[in-house]
Amino acid sequence: MRIICCRFGNKFTQWHVDNLKHMIDEYSGLKYDSFEIIEDDLFGNWFNKFQMYDRFRDGENLYFDLDVVIFDKLPNLIRKNFTLLDDTWWRERAHTPLNSSIVSWTGDISHIWNKFKQKQNHYLKTYIRGSDEWYFKNIEYETYDKICPSIKDYIYTKPSNYSVCTLGQMHHLQEEGWTGWYSNYFLPKTRI
Amino acid sequence: MIKICTVYFEGLYKPEYVSKLYRSLKRNSTVPFEFICISDNKNIEADVILPYNHLGDVKRHWHKLKFFSPQFAYQQPGDDIIIMDIDQVIVNNVDDILKWEVKENELVTYENWWNSKPNPFAAVNPLPINGGFYKFKSGSLKFIWDEFSLNPEYWQLHYYNKGDVHYKYYGEQNYVNWKLEEHNCVINKLPAQWIGKYADTNRENIVLNKMYSTKFNTDFMILDDVNDNIKIVHFLGVGKVIHGNNDSFIEKHWKL
Question: What is the CA radius of gyration of chain B?
Fold first, then answer.
């Protein structure tokens, strides 16, 4: 099994990559064969994640955004078909119900990359609010059950029924100076 | 523990503002405190420096709101949190300000005595709070940050888009005031005569001097030196700076 993450630009640093690996190794219970990092900044935005559908065409794949907190043993997140999060159980639908903070598939789903590349410029202009809207309107997908809430609903109390939260707009919680239940699971900054 | 919390970012002000505020607070107090600064300059002088992330969603003075979260700046239950702007000159002992008692669900701030008649320069529809100084119990006003953090991009332009402020990313005071009203919080003021306001024109300073003298039945606010009743002089206003100002009271009090 392959763990994948994506880091580009200046918003996320090597600490964020190391931190994700730290949380996976220490708390998730996941056993994996390789930890892959996509760093090529082809598009200057989150469409860069699509490179993983081109690069990884075999085996089991599990992708995480860098702005998640993993704090307990994860349920089985490996899926055969292309699967991502549906957030509408904790937020309004907005322009897309989908959230690609966690994505899984097995085998070759390079058709996603190919479809995107065919009209790349058009899609980049059309889907300015992010790649999750593109998934919603352009390809077949499956979604996880309620496995990953937003930390905004759990700022002061660690959720008891989940093992991973997205930080969403709350990236600041990974910055120096923030301490809460979540920071106990982050890689200490001094260890960089 | 008293935590005095500030924000500094490169631009209008210089790092000396932080050093001079920090050292003048130390010089003019006997009360222990920790001085914290959110800054994009790692070399500024403070007990604790926390990152000002230019790539994050929070802009300019809105960083101050982070201190309303009990999860920020290593706050402990019971801490007294003071948020201060750095464009202030400490001119007398401030123990009474640092030790000023504040209760849960209460904000202590400056009285904007200058925003009233007969000052022709007074703000129209002034707010009842002054963003230059907030004091509160750690965590007791946490909703101010919590609700802002759900949509910082919206709030940071909200008051500009409404026309309430005339500069982009201004309106932090408006937001804080609105949240205090919404949550039925108590707003209390430090004694008004403790705070001086300094303008950047002689005409306005003459008006302020007369107002201060009349309102508090005392001498002028600032002549060669500052009235003995004043503890802090605030240079509030868009674009107002302390450096480059040759007034004698600034040379005397605004120093390392």
Answer: 17
pTM over 0.90: yes
Residues of chain A where predicted confidence (pLDDT) is lower than 70: 190-192
Closest Cβ–Cβ partner in B58, B150, B151 for A172: B58
For residue B222, give Cα distances in angstroms to B21, B84, B201, B217: 19, 22, 13, 14
- Block residue for tokens 């860069």: A48
Chain B residues contacting A via beta carbons under 8 Å: 38, 48, 50-51, 53, 55-58, 66, 69, 71-74, 146, 149-152
A155 interfacial to chain B (CB closer than 8 Å): yes
Q: Averaged over B243-249, what is the pLDDT?
A: 83
The predicted-structure confidence for B168-215, as pLDDT tens digits, reads as follows 999 999 999 999 999 999 999 999 999 999 887 888 889 999 999 999
The two structure tokens encoding residue A172: 């600041």
> Which residues are CB-contacts of A167 (< 8 A; sequence separation ≥ 6)?
A67, A68, A69, A150, A151, A173, A174
Q: Which residues of chain B neighbour A176 with C-beta distances below 8 Å?
A: 50-51
Tokens of A126: 């059309």
The H-or-E segment that residue A135 falls in is helix A131-138
H helices of B88-238, where? 95-98, 143-149, 152-162, 172-182, 202-216
Query: How far is the C-alpha of A16 from the C-alpha of A13, rounded, in Å?
Result: 5
Instruction: Confirm or reject contact between A93 and chain B (CB < 8 A).
Output: no
Nearest to A170 among B72, B74, B149 (CB): B149
Average of per-residue pLDDT across B227-248: 84
Interface of A with B in 4-63 (CB under 8 A): 10-11
